Amino acid sequence: MSAMEKLATRDNVAGVVGPYTSACANAVAKLAERYRTPLLIAAAAKEEITRQGYKWVYRMNAPADVYASGIIDAAVTLGKPRTIAFIYENTDFGTSTTGRRKP
Question: 20 to 30 A Cα–Cα from 45, which one of 24, 58, 63, 75?
Fold first, then answer.
């Protein structure tokens, strides 16, 4: 957060690429919007990051909710499974990939 503030206010950068994780990118996106500094997210996948209506935040990769639907589509092409289970980490990325939310 402090690095983004420094880049946007003191260093007057043209834009920022990153951060990597969903939790960090979600926090930094708010600052990018506040300071009107373009933020290009190259890896963080939490869908909420770019679905908040921000004008200064952009994504290069698919949002996390697309990951699960791709896996389900692939599984269905192999037959009709009776059940599908997702094992995921309890982080912004893990919960958004499965469609579940952190408590």
Answer: 75
- Span 75-91, pLDDT tens digits: 888 888 788 777 888 88
- Number of folded domains in the chain? 2
Average of per-residue pLDDT across 48-67? 88
Range of the domain at 85: 64-98
3-state SS, one letter per residue, for 55-97: CCEEECCCCHHHHHHHHHHHHHHCCCCCCCCCCCCCCHHHHHH
**Claim: this prediction has a pTM higher than 0.90:** no
